[in-house]
Amino acid sequence: MTTSKNIQSNNISVVLVAPEHPNNIGSVARAMNNMGFFDLRLVNPCPYLTGGEDGAKTLAVHSQFILENAKIYSTLKEALIDKQIIIGTTTRPRGHHKELSSCWQLDSFLSNLSDATQIAFVFGRETSGLTNLEIDLCNHLISIPTFGENSSLNLSQAVV
């Protein structure tokens, strides 16, 4: 995840909706730390801080502090209450929903925002993504182009 020269990394949150696998949460924490982002918000996550080798801490190398400071919410709406720009991720256009942009257009979009703008990047469930109701809470949608028929990335890869 890159930021425009205007946007402060502490104004950006990564929101995972109902993540299903602790290892994915750990990998996301590591990816966030590698890119200089620290505000992880989890909506109805699986148990992720337990489980020994199957827990999130195993893959959150040098990033356990992000896991320990993650904020937990029961609804996506609660997780987004302080955000002005909400960017949902999806692999497919959704009929009546907002225009789907490529992630390659993010830099030009973000460069037009003030440095105080509060931004959330929202990622859905590993198996089914975001619901239509969750997408309705987003004011922008992006997709990440892939090659071939498999249009789904691992969660931490998508976050990066």
Structure, explained:
This protein is an alpha/beta fold and 160 residues long. Helix content is 24%, strand content 19%. The protein is built from 6 helices and 7 strands; from the N terminus they run βαβαβαββαβαβα. The protein has a 7-stranded parallel beta sheet with strand order 3-2-1-6-4-7-5. β1 (12-17), α1 (22-35) and β2 (39-43) form a beta-alpha-beta unit. The N and C termini lie close together (5 Å). The mean pLDDT is 87.
Distance between the termini: 5 Å
* Structural class label: alpha/beta
The biggest beta sheet reads: 7 strands, parallel
Morphology call: globular
Number of helices: 6
**Any low-confidence stretches, pLDDT <50, length ≥5?**
none
The overall average pLDDT, rounded, is 87
SSE string: EHEHEHEEHEHEH
